[in-house]
Amino acid sequence: MTFSWLKGHGTENDFVLLPDHDGTVHGDLDPTFVAALCHRRRGIGADGVLRVVRSAATGLPSAAEWFMDYRNADGSTSEMCGNGIRVFALHLVQEGLVDPSGPFLVGTRDGDKQITVDGDLVTVDMGVAEVRGTTKVTVDDHVWEAQDVRTGNPHAVAFVDDLAEAGALTAQPEYDEVVYPDGVNIEFVRRLGADHIAIRIHERGSGETRSCGTGACAAAVAHGLDHPSPVGSTCRVDVPGGTVWVTRGPDGAVALAGPAEIVARGEMEWIA
Length: 272
Ligand SMILES: N[C@@H](CCC[C@H](N)C(=O)O)C(=O)O
Known about the structure:
The structure is a single chain. This protein is mainly beta. The chain folds into two domains: about 1-125 and about 260-270, Diaminopimelate Epimerase, Chain A, domain 1 (Roll); about 130-250, Diaminopimelate Epimerase, Chain A, domain 1, CATH 3.10.310.10. Helices cover about 15% and strands about 45% of the residues. It is globular and about 50 Å long. The protein starts with a strand and ends with a strand. The model has no long low-confidence stretch (mean pLDDT about 95). Keywords: Amino-acid biosynthesis, Cytoplasm, Isomerase, Lysine biosynthesis. This is Diaminopimelate epimerase. Belongs to the diaminopimelate epimerase family. Its main location: cytoplasm.
């Protein structure tokens, strides 16, 4: 079977996009296939897969025409992906599938998100970030207190003096499985100013990545607990793959802005 695919990234958090508009090409994506596509040595290589499908074809509740069916590199699903949805939205615009002259909705497992596209800068209303309290994360013998923040998906945010403190991050840091029964994304955060932080991320299902949009939002919100800023203020978040911006909205809502790019497209026959 041949099918079309694209490759894109948002601050080097990279994705294979699989157009499947009516759900007839890939159906319920096989996790083994997703993991094979994403493998950095044996596949195309990506942090995740974005299946581009009409909401009506998913059976999931959404008022949006288009649904981002997101998968991690290991084939698992997640509720939300902040970089992926920016890449997804840019793809919809480039293919003429949405009207970019105003905001439009994209469906996700975390509900519908409002998107605004201005050139290659894509802004997502991420909704309310929920701060649940403190937890712990551990790498080798080093234990950090962390904030439990939910930005559609689960995050543990630990503050460090130096991003190298977290080590190579080649293995899953330890976390409290009672707090996070479905796994967790972990951010290590260095404070650089009242509205400026730098982060490293170990993602559930994908390992260390060059960026994480939901993680940037979680980190900015956790930083804001000690550096409160007014509604409308923007926190700059430096990630290994670039910079994204998190703007505080009313009542705990946040908006994520950053670049997105589609870098390749083609037809593929998967023969492995
Ligand atoms: N890279 C993403 C987050 C992807 C999902 C995450 N790994 C999870 O399992 O929750 C982002 O940009 O937000």
